[in-house]
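We modelled the chain as a single entity of 156 amino acids. Its sequence is:
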Amino acid sequence: MKKIIFALAITTMLSACSDNEVGDVSLGMFTMKDIKISNLDDEKIPGVTCHIASVEANLSLSDPSDSSISCRQTGEITPEMIAQIDRSKSGEVVFKQSKSIFFKSMKVRRIYDAENQTLLYLSYTTKETEGSFKHSLSTVPLWGTKAYVEQPVTAN
């Protein structure tokens, strides 16, 4: 039991030292839960930055599943960047973080909506919680970027 508590303490200290953490909000004096806010730069689309807020429960074996995501264009997005991403309906995982020793993780998946020329970023947990898989969605339209392709005007 002491080994488990020690491992949890080390994990908690290491997670608090995350390079991409930009905010840490306590949920109160009598709780061991905090809202951690971190930034995520999409490796294939460096012109997009996402901010993820999630609850972390210190000294717990499992963090709550609730999280939210907001993504924005923060730099140039080019046709070459769009050409290298997965264009399937399921997209690709761009971020993954363990939320429990019981195989629960939070993932962020990028999906490309070609018809609307929009990048979708879906944050979700991989374990059902209270009858629901928790998730959050943010979109980054390509309008106004070099990657946006003008659609031909059709006459009626």
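As a brief sanity check on the tokenised model: The first helix runs from residue 2 to 16. The chain is about 15% helix and 40% strand.
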